[in-house]
Design brief:
alpha/beta; eight-stranded mixed β-sheet; 38% strand
């Protein structure tokens, strides 16, 4: 038997064995890292903050071949406390005095995780991955209201299926970008800083 052929057969069988071992569901844990510079736009004003995961389906996506073997990717929790903490810390850096929102809060920001998608589909020799995060923000101050959605996406191609840490890094990177976009929105900040 040709040595090159034997080596190729070995590499192929090793790839199939590794893939077979990795077939278990993955869970993404919310851990965004927000990049906000210290300012005094909020001027110490009280701001009610609420963060909600409003996705109807908690499934994020799949990794593998949808017609054969694949794993399901889900997201961690219904009340994303880590996202709340990161957003509260960032808003504090912007000069707001952050507190949990209530019905009586006059100045409030509601952040909604509306969609998380991750898909890594097996091709003959690669895995083609795409991810998308959609975040909504609703700012209100008295009778003023501002609402907008923020979407971030990413695609990549790798030689092996992504593991939990890579999937989490991708989703959290996109979530961080979307949340940074919320906090960099001048119109939203103008409503909150009035």
């Amino acid at each position: 038997m040709n040595t090159k052929f034997q080596l190729a057969l070995f590499v192929l069988s090793l790839g199939v064995a590794v893939q077979g071992c990795m077939l278990k569901s993955e869970t993404v844990h919310f851990a965004p890292q927000l990049q906000v510079r210290q300012t005094d736009i909020g001027q110490g004003k009280a701001l009610g903050l609420e963060v909600a995961d409003v996705r109807a389906d908690k499934k994020v996506g799949i990794v593998g071949d949808p017609k054969m073997k694949f794993i399901t990717v889900t997201a961690e929790d219904d009340s994303p406390s880590t996202v709340y903490k990161q957003a509260a810390d960032a808003l504090t850096k912007l000069g707001f005095k952050v507190e949990p929102a209530s019905n009586e809060t006059e100045r409030a920001l509601r952040i909604e995780i509306r969609e998380l998608q991750y898909e890594s589909i097996k091709q003959p020799f690669t895995f083609d991955s795409k991810a998308m995060v959609l975040v909504g923000a609703i700012a209100r101050n008295g009778t003023d209201r501002y609402e907008r959605t923020y979407q971030t996406e990413q695609t990549s191609t790798t030689g092996a299926p992504p593991g939990q840490s890579e999937i989490g890094k991708t989703i959290n990177g996109l979530l961080s970008t979307a949340l940074d976009d919320v906090l960099a929105d001048r119109q939203l900040m103008a409503v909150l800083a009035k």
